[in-house]
TrEMBL record:
GO terms for cellular component: endoplasmic reticulum membrane. The chain crosses the membrane at residues 6-22, 98-123, 135-157, 177-194. Catalyzes the third of the four reactions of the long-chain fatty acids elongation cycle. This endoplasmic reticulum-bound enzymatic process, allows the addition of two carbons to the chain of long- and very long-chain fatty acids/VLCFAs per cycle. This enzyme catalyzes the dehydration of the 3-hydroxyacyl-CoA intermediate into trans-2,3-enoyl-CoA, within each cycle of fatty acid elongation. Thereby, it participates to the production of VLCFAs of different chain lengths that are involved in multiple biological processes as precursors of membrane lipids and lipid mediators. Belongs to the very long-chain fatty acids dehydratase HACD family. It comes from Candida metapsilosis. It is an enzyme of class 4 (lyase). InterPro entries: Tyr_Pase-like_PTPLA (IPR007482). This is Very-long-chain (3R)-3-hydroxyacyl-CoA dehydratase. It is found in: Endoplasmic reticulum membrane; Membrane. It comes from the Eukaryota. One of its GO terms (molecular function) is very-long-chain (3R)-3-hydroxyacyl-CoA dehydratase activity. One of its GO terms (biological process) is very long-chain fatty acid biosynthetic process.
Length: 207
């Protein structure tokens, strides 16, 4: 029952992020339609998808359905929720929400990461043969995608800071404290993935 549920969850999540990637690609080719100012809350579908994933994956970890450590899970969600809730939802007028380069960059980094991750779990849980190329991508794509996400996320927060300081001084003080934590948090996640990569790929070579 648990495996069937997780298979359904991961399949649905992979589909949601594939749609986000598709929309981002279409928007880029059409002149960044979704990045046009005017919406009361920009990037609604992206916000809803990340909140859905963050909530359910925290619950999965607490219930022991997945072995992901809770600190790792919280770090993975923290930066994204600062962007999506703390900027897109709370400060919708921030120009960072409509910055073509940085917001498209972080959307691409997040969506490709999640399509690979959830797609890998679908194959694994469904007991389908997992091609080595998919396994390699699962434990290697982060070398490029994590730094891309870090740069674009940091730029989005930085480009929002003036608006936040004017409207929400308390929140700007929080960001002054939170932003320096990006680097140690990133290094922790990066080193965690490097260790996981070494363990998994070495095990695969031994097979």
């Amino acid at each position: 029952m648990a495996k069937s549920y997780l298979l359904l969850y991961n399949g649905a999540s992979a589909s949601l992020w594939a749609y986000i990637l598709y929309r981002c690609s279409i928007d880029i080719s059409n002149g960044y339609y979704s990045f046009a100012p005017g919406d009361d809350t920009p990037h609604k579908f992206l916000i809803a998808t990340q909140l859905f994933n963050s909530s359910f994956e925290f619950l999965h970890s607490v219930l022991g359905l997945v072995p992901t450590p809770i600190p790792t899970l919280l770090l993975q969600s923290f930066a994204r929720l600062i962007i999506l809730v703390g900027i897109c939802y709370v400060i919708p007028e921030s120009p960072a929400n409509y910055n073509i380069i940085t917001f498209a960059g972080l959307t691409l980094a997040w969506s490709v990461t999640e399509i690979i991750r959830y797609g890998f779990y679908v194959l694994k849980l469904g007991k389908f043969p997992v091609p080595y190329s998919v396994l390699w991508l699962r434990y290697s794509a982060f070398f490029v995608l994590y730094p891309l996400g870090l740069v674009c996320e940091s730029a989005t927060v930085y480009n929002s800071y003036e608006v936040i300081a004017t409207r929400l001084p308390g929140y700007s003080a929080f960001l002054k404290y939170a932003m320096p934590l990006y680097i140690p948090g990133f290094l922790y996640l990066y080193s965690y993935m490097i260790k996981q990569r070494k363990k998994v790929l070495n095990r695969e070579k031994q097979k």
